Amino acid sequence: MKDLQELRARLDVIDAQIVDLYKERMDIAREVGADKVKTGKKVFDPIREQAKLDQVTELLEDGFYQKGIGELYAQLMSQSRKIQYQILIEEGKENKSVFTPVAELPVSSKEIVYQGVPGSYSQLATKKYFGEDAKLKNVRSFREAVAAVVDQEADYSVLPIENSSAGMVSDVYDLLVQYEATIVGEVILPISHALVGVKGATLNSIKEVYSHPQALSQSSEYLEEHPDWKQLAIGNTAVAAKQIKAAGDITKAAICSEEAASLYELEIIDQGINRNENNSTRFIVLAGKKIYKKDAKKVSICFELPHVSGSLYRILSHVIFNDLNMTKIESRPIKDRTWEYRFYVDFEGNLQDAGVQNALLGIAEESKNLLILGNY
Ligand SMILES: O=C(O)C(=O)C[C@]1(C(=O)O)C=C[C@@H](O)C=C1
Fold first, then answer.
1. CATH number reported for the structural domain that contains residue 238 in this entry
2. Phi, psi dihedrals of residue 108, rounded to the nearest 5°
3. Using CA atoms, how far apart are residues 112 and 102, in angstroms rounded to an integer?
4. Can you give the pTM of this predicted structure?
5. The ACT domain covers which part of the protein (predicted)?
């Protein structure tokens, strides 16, 4: 058997050759990029890439090696594209961003909109972000809240986007795309549910509990200790509180925030009844204009991908190879297109960073319907 040192010495020789060839290949890819800038050809040429993958795999017989060389070339070509997108940016040939940086979010005399009723968690989140004195207006649906900013009836609206235990609010994700509203901020609200009732209501008098389905589910362990209580779903926790007040019945209770209890003059029977003590909801602040704060640190985008092996991998490589820290990924089915998905990705960065611009160029060219949802 040849000794390890000898084998490693041979690998070193081969690797030096690979490095030289890699450099030569990248230099040529750069020249191709310069040519593409001149002729206006697209950087990503999927037909050429597939032909290249077929060509290199055919040169090998072993199945394991064939797969390996395919993976290697997918990486190499992705790096060629990265260098070429960089040239586009240097030459100022990329599609200029339609987003305007601002020092502070502008506020006019218009109201700030939230969905729900006074006392709801959305109202609490809105006050947390804009301050106690902000002029607020409530609307009934998520759709109305998004439409209000797009139609310039309000400067901003605040909507829940995800809960730490129940997950994404899918309707809001879908509306973001339908209306092309811009995320300009976010606020995280710790959620602590209380069991509330009218004066005289006690754990023993309760027969029915009303709340939003998520609040019921987040309090499920507590409710399991009271199996005889009937659970009834209502559109909003604060609406549940309002109804309990109107009913004036000691057999009915609501699960809502302590603020909603005090607003509707209800008594707190039990506090902090949610299962997960760290339960929080993240709310987004939406604007109708394409603006972002100069010091914004997070980019949210969404794009569509065909149901093809490796398509998500290739797109995410733009995030990874530009050293961007991806903090979240979600997907939603695209209506009327079975098994096709829209992906929602968050990563750290600012629209002015070269790495962010480079990644967005690549994703725009290689996916369908890229939308920059916001930088905040
Ligand atoms: O042939 C090209 O057009 C290139 O830019 C080179 C290359 C490659 O690295 O082989 C890179 C990107 C294209 O998508 C296809 C191929």
1. 3.40.190.10
2. -105, -160
3. 19
4. 0.83
5. 300-375
